[in-house]
Request: fold
Amino acid sequence: MDMTLDALDPGERWSRLGVGSTAVLLGLEIRRVELKLTNPVRTSHGEHRRRPVVLVRLSGVDHGAPVEGWGECAALADRSYDAEDVDDSFSILEETLGPALLSATSIAGHLPSLKALGALRSLAPDAPLAYAALEMAVADTHLRSTGSSFVDWIGAPAGPVRAGAVVGEFRDVGELLSRVNVLLDQGYPRIKMKIGRGADVEPIAAVRQAHPELFLQVDGNEDYTESDIDHLAGLDRYGLACLEQPFHRDDLATHARLAHRAATPICLDESLASPETVVSALEMGACSVVCVKPARLGGIGPALEVIQDCSARSVPLWMGGMFETGFARAVNVALGAASGTDWPGDLSPAASYLRQDLTVPQARSLGAEDPGNLIPSRAPGMGPAFDREVVDRHTARLVRLEAGPGPGFGDG
Reply:
């Protein structure tokens, strides 16, 4: 690795990834794979049993040797949590971002650096999840071609990253407690519960009574309104680590009023769609804890910017999750390491919630012995390699695009 990188912060190191690259892009694949969740996840938005995933694979050559890179899109099956679902992301990658990358690199003669890639973001301003997947694929290609790992490139420290577990809404409190007990026995130091109107006090009280010292968070998933402020302030008596996203994502003012009224720290998730919105939310007092989801922010670059800003402001943060495969989950674990946060994130191993992960067999067992403390992957690339046979078996749709002429851009 270039020794001059040692003096740069993680965000600056990230933007320099690919500078001077000689990799030539020949084509890309966009896949939709269909996966199933091990256990249904119930939230105020409904019940989720499956996890469709859009993957991007770049293929090319570097000094005559084949190179490839993968990206994973965080978009879900519907628009419950984002304005972009898997169908939207697939279409944007197929019709806009994929062709633009191929055309630009054909003219430039090489795969762009991460800084140069940012020129494509304006082509799909309302599709942060699709762009983040393309960014990940470009970065993975650069890292694999040089034998570097993501965690080493951004200079993340060695050591375990704390991971928490998530439980959905349970109709029966006894079933909820049984599930929480299983997760705690597996070694998770934090539990995050999904709650909603009419399904909050009883389950929270039961879990807190059973586990008085538990690091316990709750997630309202935008299910509450301003009329619930007094009710939500009443949750103070349960000693929660934070209350996540109780109101609609656009209603920062009501979050601020609740934050002023309640002792429980307020955390935002869906409201935080860019580094600028994070700053606005913090400055108006709408939250005091930040959930970092790289894809929703528009990729790794913006996520590193948020991490740096929260550190400068001494604002606690934690890494969110979108039920990723083991590949993208490893990316979030690496970011958790880079952030230096001691808040456990939604980082439980993919094998704990997917019936079939897509990574190679040796990667699927990562974290199995101690899922609450994860060691960041130091394999070349953004994360562990995909198992091509398993990916092919679960592929429901595949589109291949080849490089061609078009407008290019510099590597500035």
In short: The first helix runs from residue 10 to 15. The chain has 15 helices and 13 strands.
